[in-house]
């Protein structure tokens, strides 16, 4: 039986996101697996993997906001903006670790006062050690060769940002940010703003693509008991719940399967309920993307709305 859906993995520290994908492929014996956004090796937490037909939804799932808990160490910087940059230094090559020295006047109140500057929408420069491309080459490739590069800042949005604790140079910050946001860059920039330097010491992603830690399966469970892990897979019909949905009649299902544009005559009579005062119908009329369901509630396509108001199945899952 084909496997289609999202398997949310609770990533441990150490492996890359690509490593996790490879491990899960072998464990559940499914080649079509991808992720919806990478986590750095030191990071832990929610890593949604798209399986089977769900791989076609990776870009949509990856575009959603993500929640993090970040541990930020003040008083020093690293080339990678995180703790991995400390362990990667080579004393034989003359590289020395910077010993964190926290200013006496750095307090929780001082950090809390500047945090609002990192909220909202602004331009963020990715870390030099990142997968972003600079002149057609991955940034980390140039960084390892000490080559100059100019990374283009990108628009990011931070919709929630809270200092939970601060003690002895270590802050715990909870935040929600848009896709493309680098928590490492945030930690580094926060340290620069406070004038003492900082780097990301630890990171846990607590939600992504609409899923949280309660949905996640530890990676060792996936390896030791693949059948149990597969039982926890999120089916297609539960994905992208924030998108409004239409239900097709039999003719509409046939047309969607062939990628044909859908009209009102292809919709089932229950497709746009008005029992909620017309709010569902209004959402359908305004939405640029719509989930397309068959009569049994299965997700069969994601449609985009054309200027004419008709729906075009842009991603077919049949």
Brief summary of the model shown:
By secondary structure, the chain is of the alpha+beta class. The protein has helices at 17-28, 58-62, 84-87, 108-114, 139-144, 183-194, 219-224, 226-231, 250-257, 279-286, and strands at 5-11, 33-35, 44-51, 66-74, 120-124, 133-134, 137-138, 154-167, 170-177, 198-208, 211-212, 217-218, 234-235, 245-247, 289-293, 299-305, 311-316. Strand 6 (133-134) and strand 7 (137-138) form a beta hairpin.
Task: Tell me what you see in this structure.
The protein has 3 domains: 88 residues, Pseudouridine synthase; 143 residues, Pseudouridine synthase (2-Layer Sandwich); 74 residues, PUA domain (Archaeosine Trna-guanine Transglycosylase, Chain: A, domain 4), CATH 2.30.130. With 318 residues, it is α+β, with helices and mostly antiparallel strands. A hairpin with an 8-residue loop joins β2 and β3. It is built from 10 helices and 17 strands. It starts with a strand and ends with a strand. 23% of the residues lie in helices and 30% in strands. The strands form 3 sheets. Strands 1, 2, 3, 4, 5, 8, 9, 10, 11, 12 and 13 form an 11-stranded mixed beta sheet that branches. A 4-stranded mixed beta sheet has the order 14-15-16-17, covered by helices on one side. A two-stranded antiparallel ribbon has the order 6-7.
Structural class: alpha+beta
Q: Spans of 5+ residues with little confidence (pLDDT < 50)? A: 88-95, 273-278
The CATH class of the largest domain turns out to be: Alpha Beta
Any idea what the shape is? elongated
* Mean pLDDT rating: 87
The CATH topology of the largest domain is given as: Pseudouridine synthase
Under CATH, the homologous superfamily of the largest domain reads Pseudouridine synthase
Instruction: State the order of secondary-structure elements, H for helix, E for strand.
Output: EHEEHEHHEEEHEEHEEEHHEEHHEEE
CATH architecture of the largest domain: 2-Layer Sandwich
Beta strands, count: 17
């Amino acid at each position: 039986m084909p496997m289609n859906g999202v398997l949310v993995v609770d990533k441990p520290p150490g492996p890359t996101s690509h490593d996790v994908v490879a491990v899960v492929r072998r464990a559940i014996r499914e080649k079509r697996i991808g992720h919806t956004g990478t986590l750095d090796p030191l990071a832990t937490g929610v890593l949604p993997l798209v399986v089977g037909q769900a791989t076609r939804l990776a870009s949509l799932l990856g575009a959603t906001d993500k929640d993090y808990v970040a541990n930020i160490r003040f008083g020093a910087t690293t080339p990678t903006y995180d703790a991995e940059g400390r362990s990667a230094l080579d004393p034989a090559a003359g590289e020395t670790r910077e010993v964190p020295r926290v200013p006496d006047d750095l307090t929780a109140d001082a950090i809390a006062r500047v945090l609002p500057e990192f909220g909202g929408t602004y331009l963020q420069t990715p870390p030099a050690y990142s997968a972003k491309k600079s002149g057609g080459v991955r940034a980390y490739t140039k960084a390892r060769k000490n080559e100059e590069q100019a990374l283009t800042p990108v628009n990011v949005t931070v919709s929630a940002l809270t200092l939970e604790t601060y003690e002895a140079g270590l802050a715990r910050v909870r935040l929600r940010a848009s896709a493309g946001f680098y928590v490492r860059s945030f930690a580094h920039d926060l340290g620069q703003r406070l004038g003492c330097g900082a780097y990301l010491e630890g990171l846990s992603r607590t939600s992504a693509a609409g899923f949280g830690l309660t949905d996640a399966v530890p990676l060792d469970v996936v390896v030791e008991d693949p059948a149990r892990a597969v039982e926890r897979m999120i089916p297609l019909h539960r994905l992208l719940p924030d998108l409004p949905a239409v239900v097709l009649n039999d003719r509409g299902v046939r047309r969607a399967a062939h990628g044909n544009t859908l009209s009102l005559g292809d919709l089932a009579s229950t497709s746009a309920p008005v029992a909620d005062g017309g709010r569902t119908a209004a959402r359908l009329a305004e939405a640029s993307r719509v989930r397309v369901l068959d009569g049994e509630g299965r997700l069969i396509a994601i449609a985009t709305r054309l200027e004419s108001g008709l729906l075009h199945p842009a991603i077919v899952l049949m």
